[in-house]
Design a protein that fits this description.
This protein has 15 helices and twelve strands. Strands 2-8-11-7-3-6-4-5 form an eight-stranded mixed sheet, with helices on both faces.
């Protein structure tokens, strides 16, 4: 559920890599979901519960939402906890292009690597949410600094989770669809570097990569050979939002932050659409679909194991865009070119002045909110036309 300031308006188009989403966003609507039948979930203090989970599981997989500062703060507190490096060997991070893994290894090990060289790890990849986020550029230096205070046997390794693609050579959406296969790539990294060697790892990825029994997600792929080794954690997303009073929350008495297992509880009986806005998708035959695919139309307890509560849902804080990105006109232009290449409307036409004005405008509202999709017939029509054009162009090429 990645949504951050300004640059991340282009993030939705990159969901095409997995789900072929049509980006059509609107402001989140307030609603209060009914509470179904089931046992009451038992909240535990989040960091202690996550650390304890490594005693049973080889992998703890949790979201890293580009844009949610409260989640960033939890992750930073977790990895700085002295018990973390005693239990965990690897952190596998979505916001990293594995093409640059050698650079990342040298940097994390404490070698003299210029920061501009390290930036390729998250700036040269297919996720502009990462390129516009404050989290990666703090996360990597923090792990490096942490390692310098740990004995060699407890030093952490970081694995870049995105496929090894030279994005400077990607010129069109066709190149993306042909060359970028994220879920199998993530699963391969996990199997090769973590699971086959019985190492302990923290996975930091968007929720849609982590779901159990969901067909093509990375975790679902590797669980065919490595079942029951992964604890999947999700945050509450849009659930419990739009409340008139703080006291109306179902979690008002929970500690902050908290983690709760959901199997057999009323939370586990909810559907995924209670937490994540259902998408509009286009399949490979260029047909439009609304809602989650059948593999995800099940109780959420079948897809995730636990939920995070980071505090009142309507009071989450979002990241601010880092000054080094806001002031880097050449990098901003590169992000615009990427958005235009993938068909995001108006990505290339935004002027530097308009960009700066939007940054200033975002200061009016520091609250993080998850947009919800609405029907956009014109956008759907354009996306279907683009899909058909690509298919006919490919068919024509095949006949030549």
């Amino acid at each position: 559920m990645p949504h951050g300031p300004v640059i991340c308006r282009w993030c939705a188009v990159f969901l095409v890599l997995t789900w072929l989403f049509i980006p059509a966003w609107a402001t989140a609507q307030s609603r209060q979901q009914p509470k179904p039948e089931g046992a009451e979930p038992v909240p535990e203090r989040a960091i202690a519960a996550i650390l304890a989970a490594f005693d049973k599981y080889e992998v703890v997989a949790m979201p890293q939402d580009h844009g949610m500062r409260d989640l960033d703060d939890l992750i930073f507190s977790l990895i700085r906890n002295p018990a973390f490096s005693e239990k965990v060997n690897y952190i596998v991070f979505e916001s990293g292009n594995s093409l640059y893994q050698p650079i990342l290894d040298r940097y994390i090990a404490g070698e003299d690597v210029p920061f501009t060289e390290l930036e390729k790890v998250w700036r040269k990849m297919g996720q502009p949410a990462a390129g516009g986020s404050a989290f990666p550029e703090q996360f990597y230096p923090l792990v490096r600094a942490l390692n310098q205070k740990l004995p060699p046997e407890h030093r952490l390794h970081v694995l870049a989770g995105d496929p090894p693609i030279d994005w400077d050579q990607i010129k069109s959406l066709d190149d993306v669809l042909r060359l970028v296969h994220r879920e199998p790539g993530i699963a391969s990294v996990m199997e090769r570097e973590v699971l086959s060697k019985h190492r302990k790892a923290l996975m930091l990825f968007g929720t849609m990569h982590l779901l159990h029994k969901a067909g093509v997600t990375a975790v679902s792929i590797y669980e065919k050979d490595y079942p029951n080794v992964t604890l999947v954690i999700n945050e509450l997303g849009t659930y419990d939002t739009g409340l008139p009073l703080l006291a109306d929350s179902k979690f008002v008495n929970w500690p902050i932050p908290a983690l709760a297992r959901i199997k057999g509880t009323w939370l586990g009986a909810l559907g995924l659409s209670d937490f994540i806005p259902p998408p509009t998708t286009i399949d490979r035959d260029c047909k439009v679909h609304h809602g989650f695919p059948p593999a995800l139309q099940k109780p959420v307890e079948d897809l995730v194991d636990a939920v995070l509560y980071l505090g009142p849902q309507d009071l989450m804080l979002r990241e601010k865009i880092p000054a080094d990105i806001a002031l880097d006109s050449s990098y901003r232009a590169e992000l615009q070119r990427g958005g235009a290449m993938l068909g995001f409307p108006n990505a290339a036409s935004e002027t530097p002045k308009e960009f700066d004005e939007q940054i200033v405008k975002t200061a009016e509202n520091p609250i993080f909110s998850i947009p919800t999709q609405v029907r956009d017939p014109k956008g759907e029509e354009q996306a279907v036309k683009s899909c058909l054009d690509r298919k006919s162009g490919k068919a024509l090429g095949d006949r030549r």
